[in-house]
User: What shape does this take?
Amino acid sequence: MTVTTLLETEIELYQKRAPRSKQLWERARKVMPMGTASNSRMYEPYPIYIDHAEGSRVWDVDGNEYLDHNLSFGAMVVGHRNPAVMNAVAKQLTIGTMYGISHPLECELAEEICRRFPFLDRVRFSNSGTESTLHALRLAKAFTGKPKIVKMEGAYHGLHDAVMISVKPGSDRWGDSCIPSPVPASAGVYMDHDPNTLVAQFNDADCLEKVLQQSKGEVAAIILEPVMMNIGVLPPKLGYLQAVRELCTRYGALLIFDEVKTSSMSYGGAAEYYRIFPDIVCLSKSVGGGLPLAAFAFTEEISEVIESRKMMHAGTYNANPVVVAAGLAALRDVLTPYKYESMRSLSDKLAEGYRRILAKAGVPGIVTNAGINGAVTFGVESVSNYRQWSTMNTEMWTAFWFGMVNRGVIPQPYWWDEQWTMSVAHTEADVDTHLAALEDVAAKGLGSV
Ligand code: PMP
Assistant: This one.
């Protein structure tokens, strides 16, 4: 069958398997835009509703069981209901959920983060990835006294205005390939209100230098994900991160690694993995063990602008004790160096399986992976930046996703810009289950146009 017929068949089957989810979604639509709490959670015809989760699995309200590689957009690296995290949370619940006053665990967690990023020695907490990049960028501007930042075309760093620029720009607005035009990524974001965000092309240090030259010394920071993970999985070319580090130093800009996702590549995140040391690191997702924790870490020297009260940073929920207890258990007791190694090896095995199966079935595309994440980009031969990635075949991807879900595997979050995540709860047998489902979908005509 052709991929178009396969997609129709799979969507029909999906609806047969999930009638209760449909009912809940129809009810929710009357009180929530799209019927969901986040635009990213809505897809046609309607999303499944989850009833409960355990380890590497989730169950929907219709009783279907799924092997879960969505893992809450990469946040649940400890696995669902991890016992160490559950115990730490239960213990904290007996002594209080929130004080708005300092408590002992926050210092322990800050120390743990500094152990992982030994070139940084100060930490502040917040509640989401969005907040961590917002504060990190303000910190860079406050420290350097410069107004501008550079982000990469196609990169997502959260929802605040400074980074809601050129997230998924349409090709008619790209502008120059070396110095891309900044494009607002949402209604309500105005470039003329905030012309301080410049855009560069990932994996091209020469073009980045041109952007820096044009900005005449006004750039406070370059923010990037060391592996771009909001366009599938796009690893840096050899030498690229080193070149960015050198450019930052030469042009007096701070280097910010958004490690909201990449921190789960290894004990010390992408910084340790690639041996490149940024000035500020943004953390969230896996560090919270399933609760809403975020942090940004920086040097003592940079810290002076907060220490001296020149820069404001606060937040009612910062370092909430329940969340911090979860984060501390996740980082100290669960996500040990050995665990990262075994998750990486499972993810490598999954990636090799994808490559073998898709090649055998003649499905065009590439499989890219780094650390504990991976993704398939259909219908392309190579990708080194957002523009190349955006030529992918989304119909094949959609047929792949529904086909996998109907076979009991959530291969990654819905939307082709996401990727699979491995958790400590996943096993070799889970990888085999995942690949058996892929083999079946691939054989049904995934590559036939
Ligand atoms: N940075 C990166 C790299 C992300 O992937 C995300 C979320 N997917 C964010 C920032 C924003 O995080 P949050 O959704 O917690 O605000």
Summary: The domain at 3-77+337-443 is CATH 3.90.1150.10 (Aspartate Aminotransferase, domain 1). The CA atoms of residues 233 and 404 lie 19 Å apart. The pocket of 4'-deoxy-4'-aminopyridoxal-5'-phosphate is lined by residues 73, 128-130, 133, 156-158, 225, 229-230, 258, 260-261, 284 (CB under 6 Å).
